[in-house]
Amino acid sequence: MSSSFGRLFRISTFGESHGGGVGVVIDGCPPRLELSADDIQPDLDRRRPGQSRLVTQRKEADRATILSGVFEGRTLGTPIAIVVDNTDARPAAYDHMKDLYRPSHADFTYEAKYGLRNWQGGGRASARETIGRVAAGAVAQKLLATAGIDIVAWVSEVHDIVAKVDADTVSGADVDEAGPTRCPDPDAAARMVDSIEQARRDGDSLGGVVTAVVRGTPAGLGDPVFDKIDATLAHAMMSLPAVKGFEIGSGFAGTKLTGLAHNDAFVPGPDGPRTATNRSGGIQGGITNGEDIVMRVAFKPTATISSEQDTVDRDGIATTLAAKGRHDPCVLPRAVPLVEAMARLVVADHWLIQRSIDVLGPTDETT
Amino acid sequence: MSSSFGRLFRISTFGESHGGGVGVVIDGCPPRLELSADDIQPDLDRRRPGQSRLVTQRKEADRATILSGVFEGRTLGTPIAIVVDNTDARPAAYDHMKDLYRPSHADFTYEAKYGLRNWQGGGRASARETIGRVAAGAVAQKLLATAGIDIVAWVSEVHDIVAKVDADTVSGADVDEAGPTRCPDPDAAARMVDSIEQARRDGDSLGGVVTAVVRGTPAGLGDPVFDKIDATLAHAMMSLPAVKGFEIGSGFAGTKLTGLAHNDAFVPGPDGPRTATNRSGGIQGGITNGEDIVMRVAFKPTATISSEQDTVDRDGIATTLAAKGRHDPCVLPRAVPLVEAMARLVVADHWLIQRSIDVLGPTDETT
Amino acid sequence: MSSSFGRLFRISTFGESHGGGVGVVIDGCPPRLELSADDIQPDLDRRRPGQSRLVTQRKEADRATILSGVFEGRTLGTPIAIVVDNTDARPAAYDHMKDLYRPSHADFTYEAKYGLRNWQGGGRASARETIGRVAAGAVAQKLLATAGIDIVAWVSEVHDIVAKVDADTVSGADVDEAGPTRCPDPDAAARMVDSIEQARRDGDSLGGVVTAVVRGTPAGLGDPVFDKIDATLAHAMMSLPAVKGFEIGSGFAGTKLTGLAHNDAFVPGPDGPRTATNRSGGIQGGITNGEDIVMRVAFKPTATISSEQDTVDRDGIATTLAAKGRHDPCVLPRAVPLVEAMARLVVADHWLIQRSIDVLGPTDETT
Amino acid sequence: MSSSFGRLFRISTFGESHGGGVGVVIDGCPPRLELSADDIQPDLDRRRPGQSRLVTQRKEADRATILSGVFEGRTLGTPIAIVVDNTDARPAAYDHMKDLYRPSHADFTYEAKYGLRNWQGGGRASARETIGRVAAGAVAQKLLATAGIDIVAWVSEVHDIVAKVDADTVSGADVDEAGPTRCPDPDAAARMVDSIEQARRDGDSLGGVVTAVVRGTPAGLGDPVFDKIDATLAHAMMSLPAVKGFEIGSGFAGTKLTGLAHNDAFVPGPDGPRTATNRSGGIQGGITNGEDIVMRVAFKPTATISSEQDTVDRDGIATTLAAKGRHDPCVLPRAVPLVEAMARLVVADHWLIQRSIDVLGPTDETT
């Protein structure tokens, strides 16, 4: 259960890494939005394997086909089904993993939950599942663009390398131009390349942090109590493979400040109150205040490594494993479009929900 | 919208800090569970203000009344409504805040979202809303106890003071005996008391970290993809007031390890595979592996401070504010039962969902 | 589970017939709507027992208290909790039913489902549960009034007495003035009074039909496929106690017409297409076409009768039962506000959802 | 929105009549269920056009492809995506309908709702959408079979022809052998054939009633209050195209009985209480009592007829229309698998939900 996400802009993904294909059904996209497969493909290209020597060499064209919900170049308001075929599946490469559990993978837990698993390439737990998310995120972005909302994510840390990036000004173009690391600090990016290549040579892997900023949200998005926008962002990001932590605004570092130092003073702005600082990360009480939403997402080092590791097999006997499949020594560059996609989905959903709240005139008008 | 949380064990909270009362409706609690108000009161007592000089002096008896869903000492399977009256409301204490926005509070954002707000004591954004969560969490714990699942949370950091606590062995009794800080490291606790009292004298406030461990979960809880149990825990914790970050297992620190150092090797155990280490925090691919679930939750320093701060009023004019109401110089001690409550709600929900998945016999039986 | 209904205008009811009280939490009511308990009480008065000699003589004041969600006379956008105490509970009157199953009641099925039941007066299956629905329906009506939508229901049949009422013109005032039968055909009403009183004298009971009309809905409300507005209306009405059938527009009688006779020809209207006839009942493809929505709801004769009936006890032994409690010889008059409440809830929900669909400009503008 | 149905056994359909294809994603099917496309195809064959001269001659192979969720012949517990291509689409046949509204179709209402529509063959409102439902229903039936639950539906009325069928004994085989009418009363079936063929010759169409019986449900399925099993069945059936009415048990006819005649007396049975009669239709208080669930569903005469009818075009100008496409003079025979599919989906969902309620031992054990 629960391959669905969102309330009004609601997606359901499907598919295993090996099998007929993967995809997504988007229910709740408003009608009359211009949309074609060309709007989706660029983001799938940024996500797919084989883009550079820093990531897995699995070759997948990952071509999106829109099966429904679009007519004469516009959304119909009906479900948009998008399918991507699995073309470079090599199930035989996983034969040696059929009867044992890869450390820090989901092999054992899926089997504990379901009593069986598709052992070919991770099955449902494969990163290929995220193709549907990225495709849906591209559609969400088309909607957000109509409201002037823009989202940029980048690699801000790989292992112990911390990039210097100005979250207030960095653009999506800066990230694209940063090359295969997707880190828009050239110096840090160069060191990241070296570290990732060394990890590959060592049969090892690296983790890191993706930072994302949402710009242009109006004040007022997010639902109090359980569906605070930071809570749904956390839910969204923690649902991505390999994520171990989430921060909004000042995050864990904020706990080292006192209230006086941490509070964001309000100052008069041309269109209403602004804050002098943004340790709130654009969200107060779970609702946007109009400042940039800034978040950080921690990705653990890739679990699949070619070094030999201890494990047990399905009979509970100790054994060892060294991965033979193609894999990423560092997922961070490919994680950037995933973080963007999830942020887009969350913000689009809250933006639509706010439409149902803003239905009556202001109090002052009616008194 | 969205004052509800959970899928099968589903709660809906209601109430503002000032008004008739606050409470919760629990829909989906299984029938035949022994339950009375006495099961709920101890947790409300741990949450309520006025327990020690470290927290707000607001006096609320916070007595729970069960309006429905229980008959002759057992749950009926029907909705359990629990109401707590507001008895020490002093709305006049908030008069001076009626027309201005407290920094890093939800005053401005609620008004941006809804066009009006209950300015008395935080309204819906008040921590009093969490009474309903704690009451529901106590009911969830009764259910989890039948499955041998136990949850312990404690204050692990206040400002720059880091406690040394063994997450493998610390018990709820240890936390209760730790006194008003709820930090079961006596040395750290003593320093925390000093720091919090100093912050109060300074008209300032402190933040910190609550750590929680879930013990006794069977392998297999949690739904892949969007409702991974770490994702729903993150959602739950980030929905608490003042939370800015969430980590599971190795968290952000895990990004500094390589894959070889980070992976949890499987080793044979008496009842199936165990892991030699637990950097996964008991969760792999979003599903429990039977090890302890370990998480950390960052709380920012309390926004309400008696020092003077810059802000603006509803007309957009710059002004200053110094809080006069009763408030917590540090919410961490009172946050412990909140974190426990949310963890209980999440785990109970996933545990019930797993009942609907385990309905067919194992594959081997049917072949 | 599932004491909740609606998507954006979402209600959760709670409470048994005997116990602390019954009520409802409304989540998703837009902010800035004028609301007080006085808006709710008239509908509760129309629903409550003891209004006339045609219905049960149980005495309940049924006074609504709004616990939350309203501030200074307006909705806050936060959950509106409404509670009504149980004041005339006489559990002793049900002692003789403790260990046996009333025919055509929910005693046996609740016990089969939950393993126990509150045997005092029907527990959760009591019609007192509908108090929360009626209170929420009154709030929904305040919202619908801002959109010019009005709903009128009336008793159109009791047993074999069929009223003549013009659905195009009958008003709520007509129904109120019709007296205790709520049948605005004076001749039929007089015969209904005689029949109901005779049934009471006979220790028997009668059923009938409530007809409802929704006027003023814009074209376009209702979601295709599973949440067609006629499907959600059917769901809502069939969830009321004692309902056995639902019809929209031509209903079962429409199956006796041919397509040529049944189709509603479109004709030009001042504000767009109208239909010459309305066998569609205002709904085509699950979406409103702007004509009146007309539906019929069948209520079985009251299950509680004072005549002796065969049944079995909890030990499976055959026995007999004659009801002693206070009960309605005919629920139809009290069913009218229930049908209105459910229709209001459904239409308000669809109306809010349409706000999230109408977010982009028309196609023609953007091309 | 809202192309999803169900809570634990949850389906999402997608697709228009013309476009890449139609299909369904099933989320929540338990793992380890044997499943292949061969389990689905027979039901699709019973639904598809072109089976006999009584129905539309549109030719569609309607071959189901399972894209995900099944591995080595068993369900994985992950989403099952099923796609059926559109192969005999003839959009040109609809060119003349592009700018006008077919009477009693959804053309006008879709345009009112969405501002645009796929005018080729009904788009999303086409009966082709039901392919996904039928495919999902076949999967649900595999699950229900493990619990001994069986569902049979048949054509009980066409226009004014009423079949005599014993609901207690009629089998699926009887319906299959009844030939193209799917009415297992040979005499009535013969008259139905004559009537339907006459309607076709007249350029007209007929409606009717499908009756369905669910056998083998344990007592206790169905959720009180809003998700009574009769309410969710009504929702499901009213969501099918062309349905105008729904009855459970005694239905509208039951309103003509008195309580004494209508009540189902309990009698001792070998495995607990049984009812001497079944006017409740197997459901009391929204929960199954173990007797057969019996329901009736009214289908209006097909809206598409070749006779000339009055209508208006998109500019509001009066015009006429005579359908040229291939269409069904009577949908009843093809409606049988649709009713069965929806009943299967509802019962499977309630059956899974009951697993989460039956988690604690009986009261007597714990006292």
Question: What would you note in describing this structure?
Answer:
By secondary structure, the first copy, chain A, is an alpha+beta fold. The first copy, chain A, has a single domain, classed as Chorismate synthase, AroC fold, CATH 3.60.150.10. In chain A, 28% of the residues lie in helices and 20% in strands. The first copy, chain A, has nine helices and 18 strands. The first copy, chain A, has helices at 37-47, 107-114, 130-146, 172-177, 186-201, 229-238, 259-262, 332-357, 363-366; strands spanning 4-5, 10-14, 21-27, 64-66, 70-71, 74-75, 80-85, 150-158, 161-162, 208-215, 243-248, 266-267, 274-275, 283-284, 287-288, 293-299, 309-312, 318-321. In chain A, strand 17 (309-312) and strand 18 (318-321) form a beta hairpin. The first copy, chain A, is globular, with a radius of gyration of 21 Å.
Q: How would you summarize the topology of this molecule?
A:
The structure is a homotetramer of 367-residue chains.
Chain A: E1 4-5, E2 10-14, E3 21-27, H1 37-47, E4 64-66, E5 70-71, E6 74-75, E7 80-85, H2 107-114, H3 130-146, E8 150-158, E9 161-162, H4 172-177, H5 186-201, E10 208-215, H6 229-238, E11 243-248, H7 259-262, E12 266-267, E13 274-275, E14 283-284, E15 287-288, E16 293-299, E17 309-312, E18 318-321, H8 332-357, H9 363-366
Antiparallel strand pairs in A: 1-2, 2-3, 3-7, 4-7, 5-6, 8-9, 8-10, 10-16, 11-16, 12-13, 14-15, 17-18
Helix pairs in contact in A: 1-3, 1-8, 3-8, 6-8
